[in-house]
């Protein structure tokens, strides 16, 4: 309960800071009430960094991950339910545990696996970055 309250307070504080002008943000204690520059600041951020494109990219990646996880889960559930094979229970738990890991946890191992697959001589990232090739 305390963590949820603290999180809500920090989000409110960030929204208040986003609604202030540059001069008001630079004052030592930030005010606790929102300012009047929220719309202008939001428009400036939207156009300056291309927030629409970034949000579309994030939505596309999230939708792709959700559809991929759902497809793999449905296919594996079908296989485990309708096919009889040895170690079916162990395979179920391995699939179940791997689906529970978020993509963010598995991304580092993916980055480690790609050079190993594309360069069978175990090329390192630093060598590939320096020379442009995985060859020794």
Automatic annotation (TrEMBL):
The UniProt keyword set, sorted, is: Cell inner membrane, Cell membrane, Membrane, Transmembrane, Transmembrane helix, Transport
Membrane protein topology class: Multi-pass membrane protein
SUPFAM superfamilies named among the record's database cross-references: MetI-like
Q: What is its main location?
A: membrane
Tell me yes or no: is Transport among this UniProt entry's keywords: yes
Give start-end ranges for the coiled-coil region(s): none
Q: In which compartments does the protein localize?
A: Cell inner membrane; Cell membrane
Regions crossing the membrane: 61-83
Q: Which Gene3D superfamilies match?
A: MetI-like
Give the superkingdom in one word. Answer: Bacteria
- Function of the molecule: Part of the ABC transporter complex UgpBAEC involved in sn-glycerol-3-phosphate (G3P) import. Probably responsible for the translocation of the substrate across the membrane.
Assembly, in brief, is:
The complex is composed of two ATP-binding proteins (UgpC), two transmembrane proteins (UgpA and UgpE) and a solute-binding protein (UgpB).
Protein name (Swiss-Prot/TrEMBL):
sn-glycerol-3-phosphate transport system permease protein UgpE
Source organism per entry reads Muricoccus vinaceus
């Amino acid at each position: 309960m305390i963590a949820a309250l603290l999180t809500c307070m920090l989000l409110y504080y960030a929204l208040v800071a986003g609604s202030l002008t540059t001069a008001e943000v630079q004052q030592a204690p930030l005010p606790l009430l929102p300012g009047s520059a929220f719309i202008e600041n939001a428009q400036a951020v939207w156009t300056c960094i291309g927030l629409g494109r970034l949000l579309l990219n994030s939505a596309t990646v999230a939708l792709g991950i959700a559809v991929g996880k759902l497809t793999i889960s449905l296919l594996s559930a079908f296989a485990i339910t309708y096919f009889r094979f040895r170690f079916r229970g162990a395979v179920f738990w391995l699939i179940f545990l791997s689906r529970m890991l978020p993509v963010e946890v598995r991304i580092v191992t993916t980055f480690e696996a790609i050079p190993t697959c594309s360069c069978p001589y175990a090329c390192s990232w630093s060598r590939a970055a320096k020379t442009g090739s995985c060859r020794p």
